Amino acid sequence: KQPLSRLSVATDINAVGAPGTADLPWSELGFEFRPTKSHLRMTYRDGKWQEPEMVESPYINVHIGATALHYGQACFEGLKAFAHEDGSVNLFRPDENAKRINRSGHRVMMPEIPVETFIKACNDVVKDNVAYVPPYGSGGALYLRPLLFGSGPRIGLQPAEEYTFIVMVIPVGDYYKGGLAAPVNGLIVDDYDRAAPKGVGAAKVAGNYAADLIPNMAAKKKGFPICLYLDAATHTLVEEFSTSNFIGIDNENKKYITPKSDSVLPSITNKSLQTLAKDEGMTVEQRDIEVAELSTFDEVIACGTAVVVTPIGSLTRFDGNGEESKYQFTEDVGETTRRLYDTVRNIQNGEIEDTHNWNYKV
Ligand code: PLP
Ligand code: COI
């Protein structure tokens, strides 16, 4: 990250304001709600999507019988917009988020949002909030949180007839304090599961995150900022973290290894990193990973939109008798972790050529 004095606030005269012109402490952003100018809102009623509108109030009037409130008929997305040095703002792979929200929505019987409608919604809300896009060089990004939920009443267990789609935006910095420079220690969770086989783990539905709250907070209390879940059926295979996918790196054999499981969320960051790893000649393996195999990895990464590429320093597991086994990875940031981080962030920041066409210019 650059010191504040070196941040360049780009001046795009066509924009309403420009990235970084809101009065915010750009180099101190964490990952917390902050008010912005507006969010986008669109309602599905009488079998079709109505026209979207930009709303300034962060409050919403919802029916007390809304299916999202009672039965968890809700899913969400997460993607980021980045300011480039030329003053433009670019979304990272919004088409992938559009496809995923529809897969998640389908799993809990919500209506499809056309891909173009989703991308235009993201585009328009960023434009309206361009002043809140962290300036080029700050290390931050504008996080977009699309949210789709059943807003119509239903008390018999059935899908709603009315849905609300929202895209809210929040300027963010690092999810885990210290970012790339500070490896995070994780706890392997045995007392709880995140997702059942054939359940909803591969969908980004709200309830998956509620299920994680107890283990997540208990781990934090023990000094572990991140939780790693195992497969629910046998607790012998690595699945994913609360917030992100798992990647194991074997440097000697130039291997990138990530779990293959129907109950893991297909991460867009993981998909992108796999492409970048292959570009640099690594072998990518998506397959079962036994817990014991953790001892063979040189580096472990948690990857996702919010956490980007977070180095995992160690993973600890307590057995039934409170005995501890600890898998230690690189003390510092591993070389492959750093390279993957740099490459994906440089693409996002417009600092190297976007050979895969991942940036979508707002
Ligand atoms: N796994 C979980 C449980 C997540 O919540 C996320 C975040 O979206 C990811 C993985 C990473 O997905 P992506 O890279 O698409 O953000
Ligand atoms: C994201 O990375 O976009 C997520 O949705 C993860 C969430 C726990 C912040």
From TrEMBL:
The keyword Signal applies. GO terms for molecular function: branched-chain-amino-acid transaminase activity. Its cofactor is pyridoxal 5'-phosphate. It is an enzyme of class 2 (transferase). CDD domains: BCAT_beta_family (cd01557). One of its GO terms (biological process) is branched-chain amino acid metabolic process. Keywords: Aminotransferase, Pyridoxal phosphate, Signal, Transferase. The keyword Protein biosynthesis does not apply. Its EC number is 2.6.1.42. The modification N6-(pyridoxal phosphate)lysine is found at residue 204. It comes from the Eukaryota. Belongs to the class-IV pyridoxal-phosphate-dependent aminotransferase family. This is Branched-chain-amino-acid aminotransferase. The lineage of its organism: Eukaryota, Sar, Stramenopiles, Ochrophyta, Bacillariophyta.
